[in-house]
Amino acid sequence: MSVRELVVLGTASQVPTRHRNHNGYLLRWDGEGILFDPGEGTQRQMLRAGVAAHDLHRICVTHFHGDHSLGLAGVIQRINLDQVPHEVTAYYPRSGQRFFDRLRYATAYRETVRLTEAPVAADGVLAVTPAYTLEARRLSHPVESFGYRLVEPDGRRMLPDRLAAHGVKGPDVGTLQREGRLGDVTLEQVSEVRRGQRFAFVMDTRLCDGVHALADGCDLLVIESTFLDEDTRLAEEHGHLTAGQAAAVARDAGVRHLVLTHFSQRYSEPAEFERQARAAGFEGELTVAHDLLRVPVPKRR
Question: Catalytic residue among 37, 55, 67, 204, which?
Fold first, then answer.
């Protein structure tokens, strides 16, 4: 059975707290694992969450501030120590190549795994697989930052009443799905488009076109909400979003499940993030993330 879920490894912003580790998020998408923004302590959080190095297929770094990338060194060494049998691809801003190099070779270790570097320089498609397309969009932060979006290809949903009307049943249904036609009956006559699922990961940024493009139509949106709305000026100054801003983006984009994360240590009441998100008019499913939380990707409509 396929599994599509977000495993939250850490939710703190610049400074970790007693209850929040630095950033780290694993998206399980069927048989693949995509690790986003491994901050300091990610390797230990993986252990606590039951995530193995063998689960990692791609690593996506939004930008090179420490709370989003200092865990790279440990994660890279761990996939080599455990001799992960498949290729692992790392995406990160090209402008931060020197930081990636330093983290990759922070200390001595034996390289046993093929780690492919795929630096990102502009908006566009990063990878295309049968299961999804991975895209990047530029964000607005004091250092170059990119958000990531995963889009599943659209499929077809078979309609039993139309199949029955055309006398298609049993193994013939599978033949029609594979070949697109069975005699005079076409796939379009007995099915409808099943929209592919969409996921986006938006970290440190002000409001910008990239934020809206990433969030558009997402089934699951993971987005930073470093500040509460009363600190909008600080958010703009430091290149971040407030809870209300993040929720308004999700509202306008038609997001089904919104996950708020990346919280400043100045706040001690997570419920206030939810209150402000609802006040901004977001009516979908809402999660204020905490460490080691598991969030399923919503089922298809």
Answer: 67
